[in-house]
Design a protein that fits this description.
The complex is a heterodimer of chains A (about 240) and B (about 375). Chain A has about 240 residues and is α/β, with parallel strands linked by helices. Chain A has helices at about 45-50, 70-75, 95-100, 105, 115-125, 140-155, 170-185, 200-205, 220-225, 230-235, 240-245; strands at about 5-15, 20-30, 35-40, 60-65, 75-80, 160-165, 190-195, 210-215, 215-220. A 6-stranded mixed beta sheet of chain A has the order 5-6-7-3-8-9, with helices on both faces. In chain A, helix 7 (about 170-185) links the parallel strand 6 and strand 7 (about 190-195). The two termini of chain A are about 35 Å apart. Chain B is mostly helical and about 375 residues long. Chain B has helices spanning about 5-30, 30-40, 45-55, 60-80, 85-110, 115-120, 145-170, 175-180, 185-205, 205-225, 230-255, 255-275, 280-305, 320-325, 325-340, 355-370, and strands at about 130-135, 140, 340-345, 350. Chain B folds into 2 domains: about 5-125 and about 145-280, ABC transporter involved in vitamin B12 uptake, BtuC; about 280-380, Arc Repressor Mutant, subunit A (Orthogonal Bundle). Chain B starts with a helix and ends in an 18-residue tail after the last helix. Classes of the chains: A alpha/beta (about 240), B mainly alpha (about 375). Chains A and B meet through helix 4 of A and helix 7, helix 8 and helix 11 of B. The structure holds adenosine-5'-triphosphate and magnesium ion. Magnesium ion binds near residues 45, 46, 82 and 164 of chain A.
Chain lengths: ~240, ~375
């Protein structure tokens, strides 16, 4: 394939205390894929995303976004953190949280104005949350909070989207709404990376997949590598029954 | 009011505003304790600064002492990062150590300095006007007012410039760093401002009042609003209110001004805690009681709606049929009557036209969760506020 490379990770090793939670990860993610990262709890999925985004410093290795370090490409990247990583009791409204997505393009000191507000309202509309715009965020349900975060990422108008478990605790209709938006993003040529736990839906939702468990097990097109062998290597249990029914 | 009286209130108000602003962010970052730690651990910095400058109000001393404040924060974080102890334990380890170094320094050099621990902890606002700011022989007012004025201006400027950065890094550290707003820079910026404020204010009002002025207004404001900007405004108002009214309370009681202001702060917080419109204790209790009554009323109306047979709707049978105690049944029937939802003929209850449409709208809302039909009822009905 002559596809452009969106994200390239080389020899990435990350440790919190002593033992690395990610070992020597090499990863190439082509532009325009909708990719799932799968792996058991504690496999280092969130850590991988955080390391790519420079939220934590790796002890070795490098990350390139379109050939440049992340620091230079910040504006091309949007990120939806795993739930529970923010202070839900913070005094702010849904609209305000979505507006935060525009802060990156503003840079330091400059304040958001009408243009940013309009973009935020449009994003809220897209995730069907417009009627909740003035709601304090702690008074939203888990699925609604997830939609707000998706809207916040959309408003960043990025080329690459990272989402850490966007389907965690959301109902079927929200899940479908979210995946449809993600598929739309892919259609628009964006690259979307999603930490995903529901193995059943991987073939239906994604076209690219990375198996991760401290080390990278495999990465590539779903139709080529999403098989029992890789699942077993990743999860350590035989997945035949679970996936192939 | 005499001149010193006005000056004292001015200083108190300036301190209150300067403290309230960083206080809001400390409270939101769940770092209230750190202000307490800073206010104590700056003591060695103050003493050392005093050795060097021989002037309690020198800017050099303020910078030195604020440096000790930052050292406190760094030490706490280092100890916490080892993963061996929690943050509160780390704070509890660091600041007594630094504070006692300060105490020892004072004790060893007691002859040379007119500085004592009480003065640092409690301060004496009443004396603040005696220390004048003289420039070429002209009296420009109390030094403390100038110091706090400058600190406040800096704080306001920084708040104006970095409001959005502070907001996003307080709310979501991950997003903040992903967007390129280094949480570490913002964190240490906030800590520096807090330290400088504490140092600038301690001489006038004492360390304890500084902590109270940082935390109490913000904690009270937090209960009153879900908007960060409003929270800042409310905190500032509470702070100034406590400063001025605390001054007059002290005047009237002939007591310590700092003590009186702290007392007012505590009272303000208690009042808000009980009477805040949404999150206050009484409001929550009232809402729950209302909701219980409303649920009973709805159950009652639905019962009437479901049963055409007179026997089920007989006033004396309600108790058995809906399983209520008599008192509750009476309240609910009265409530329904007062609102023209039911009528009673020959001791048999029927829904009125209004009652019928109300019941059906409510039923539809409960089943479909669509609230267009009950929109106009939201103001009266807690259950429908969604
Ligand atoms: N802040 C931290 N300090 C120390 N260890 C951490 C920290 N965060 C994560 N870890 C450890 O690193 C490993 C990887 O964590 P990570 O959050 O990346 O897992 P994950 O694959 O996202 O798991 P999950 O599916 O449960 O979200 C885990 O063993 C976890 O215990
Ligand atoms: Mg995770």
């Amino acid at each position: 394939m002559t596809q452009k490379i969106a994200i390239q990770v080389d020899d990435l090793t990350v440790a919190y205390n002593y033992k690395p939670v990610l070992w020597d990860i090499d990863l190439v993610i082509p532009q325009g894929v909708l990719m799932a990262i799968v792996g058991p709890n504690g496999a280092g999925k969130s850590t991988l995303i955080k390391a790519i985004l420079g939220i934590i410093d790796p002890i070795a290795g490098s990350v390139a976004i379109y050939g440049e370090p992340y620091k230079k490409q910040r504006k091309l990247v949007a990120y939806v953190p795993q739930k529970g990583s923010v202070d839900w009791d913070f005094p702010t409204t849904a609209l305000d949280v979505v507006m935060m997505g525009t802060y990156g393009s503003l840079g330091w000191i400059k304040r958001p104005g009408q243009k940013q507000k309009k973009a935020a309202l449009e994003a809220l509309e897209k995730v069907d949350m417009l009627s909740f715009k003035s709601r304090q965020i702690s008074q939203l349900s888990g699925g609604q909070q997830q939609r707000i975060f998706l809207a916040r990422a959309l408003v960043q108008n990025a080329s690459i989207y990272f989402m850490d478990e966007p389907f965690q605790g959301v109902d079927a209709s929200t899940e479908i709404a979210i995946i449809n938006i993600l598929k739309e993003l892919r259609k628009a040529g964006k690259t979307v990376v999603v930490v995903h736990h529901d193995l059943q839906t991987v073939p239906e939702y994604f076209d690219w997949v990375t198996f991760l468990n401290v080390k990278k097990i495999a990465t590539g097109p779903v139709k080529d590598i999403f098989n029992d062998d890789n699942l077993t290597k990743t999860y350590g249990i035989n997945y035949k029954v679970a996936v192939n029914k | 009011m005499s001149n010193p009286q006005i000056e004292i209130q001015l200083i108190a108000a300036l301190v209150a505003v300067s403290c309230a602003i960083p206080g809001v962010f400390l409270v939101l970052r769940k770092m209230a304790l750190i202000s307490d730690a800073i206010s104590h651990s700056i003591l060695p910095g103050i003493v050392l600064g005093f050795f060097i400058t021989q002037d309690l109000n020198s800017p050099v001393l303020i910078i030195l002492a604020a440096g000790t404040g930052i050292i406190t924060v760094v030490l706490v974080e280092r100890i916490q990062k080892t993963g061996l102890v929690k943050e509160d334990t780390a704070i509890g380890l660091v600041f007594p150590a630094l504070f006692s170094i300060g105490v020892l320094l004072i004790a060893k050099n007691a002859n040379d300095i007119h500085l004592d621990v009480d003065a640092v902890l409690l301060g004496e606002l009443a004396f603040a006007p005696f220390d004048r700011f003289l420039l070429f022989g002209a009296d420009l007012g109390p030094k403390a007012a100038w110091i706090m004025g400058v600190i406040l201006l800096i704080t306001l400027l920084l708040l104006y410039l970095f409001f959005k950065e502070l907001k996003v890094s307080t709310f979501d550290v991950g997003l903040s760093s992903a967007l390129g707003f280094s949480p570490a820079i913002l964190h240490y910026g906030l800590m520096s401002v807090s330290s400088i404020t504490v140092v600038g204010a301690f001489d006038a009002v004492g360390a304890i009042l500084v902590v109270a002025l940082m935390i109490a207004p913000a904690a009270a404001a937090y209960l009153l609003t879900a908007d960060l900007k409003k929270m800042l405004w409310i905190s500032v108002c509470f702070g100034v209110f406590a400063a001025i009214s605390g001054y007059w309370l002290a005047h009237w009681l002939d007591a310590s001004i700092a003590g009186s202001i702290t007392t007012v702060l505590a009272l303000v917080f208690l009042l808000v805690y009980f009477f805040a419109p949404n999150k206050g204790v009484l409001s929550v209790m009232y809402r729950q009681k209302q909701q219980r009554t409303e649920v009973s009323l709805l159950t009652f109306l639905l019962h009437l709606n479901n049963h055409q047979e007179e026997e089920e709707r007989h006033i004396n049978h309600l108790r058995e049929h809906i399983n209520w105690q008599q008192v509750k049944a009476n309240t609910v029937v009265k409530l329904a009557l007062d609102n023209n939802l039911i009528s009673i003929t020959n001791e048999v209850i029927s829904l009125t036209q209004k009652g019928l449409s109300f019941t059906q709208a409510a039923l539809e809302y409960i089943i479909t969760n669509k609230d267009d039909k009950i929109e106009h009822l939201k103001d009266d009905f807690f259950l429908f506020r969604g």
